[in-house]
Amino acid sequence: MRKIMAMLVVGLAAGSVLTTIAPATASAGFCTEGTAHDYAKPLKRLAELRAAPVTERLPFGPARVFFNHSSSGPLVVGDGEVGYTLSYSPYFPGHHLSPPLNWIVEARYMRVDQRGKTTRAMGHIMRRINRLRADEDKPSGRVDFLFKAGKPSLYRLEITFTDLSGKRLARYGEYLRVLKPKLDARLALNGAAFRPGERVTARLDNYGTTTLSFGLSRSVEYFGGTAWIEAPNSAQGPTAAIGLGLGPGASAQCWNFTIPPDEPPGQYRFVVRADSSSDSRQGEAKSLTLGSEFQIVPPG
Fold first, then answer.
1. What residues contact 92, with CB distance under 8 A and at least 6 apart?
2. Which pTM value belongs to this model?
3. Which of 199, 264, 275, 278 has its CA 20 to 30 A from that of 87?
4. What pLDDT digit, counting tens, does each position of 24-65 carry?
5. What are 30-40's pLDDT values in tens digits?
6. E strands of 151-265, at which residues?
7. Based on C-alpha coordinates, what's the Rg of the chain?
């Protein structure tokens, strides 16, 4: 019998589950962490830029002066901000000045084409930073170099440090892709028909651009002819109260249900609940109910 797989078309209202039928996914490596859709693919073709240090410390900067990104990766969803931040964290609270820096810091944000060529200058910020001041109003002495993300496209973000004599200390850059928020969460199964004693495995695939958050709990329901009800012997037991996340285009988390010997044959569905953020800044969430149907057939 040809395997099939039921995947969910997301229902935003609580308790709403809509399903469609699609070809089955092979069981081998079914729960291996992977990619449902590679939204960063256009960036991989561009010439590599010198990346900013990942340690939050500038190699030419004094201790306790930190350098941070405003975003957590190359994909920016929605109308957020992109850029960098300089800050100073003194050993003790109060009014403190950082050691002398005497830097000219210049940041640029540009829209680029698929070859990385600039098509439009989006913003330019230049500041002279003599020292960073940490006080009661601004405990971190923070100085921002931030830009509006802009419309969906490819962008290049650069920041340059020079001393007062004009000597360049460093230039860092990165490519970004700005995306529209898109909700497309699917729950895939490792098959469509199972016998008692076999294991049903459900995998969460994020084909959209919004971030999904969820826990470890799941439910299994049985179609009783007029409505879906909790399946006999499907209790999961206690689960750890932890929050998990799945970013744009990612595929990873799995749930399992081993079919008991006395589970009645019939039509079932695997159900998982999750939330989808509105953008990369984890804004207002939407509640989702994700489900995929399968059959339990008699042993034989």
1. none
2. 0.81
3. 278
4. 344 447 887 789 999 999 999 999 999 998 888 999 999 889
5. 887 789 999 99
6. 153-163, 168-179, 185-189, 193-194, 199-206, 212-214, 219-223, 228-230, 244-246, 250-258
7. 25
